[in-house]
Amino acid sequence: MSAGSALGIAAAVAVAVTAIGWRTVLTMIAVSVVALAVVGFVNVTSIMFG
Prior knowledge:
Helices cover 92% and strands 0% of the residues. The protein is an all-alpha fold. Helix 1 crosses helix 2. The longest helix has 28 residues, at 22-49.
């Protein structure tokens, strides 16, 4: 990840936090992390048993 995209992400998070609040942003991040974990787990298990 380049510094530019990291700054862009940080700016987007800051805007989102000021717009909709901390709890909503943290919930969205948590949901996306869980979704990624589930997708990764499904991929690994399908490769193992495939």
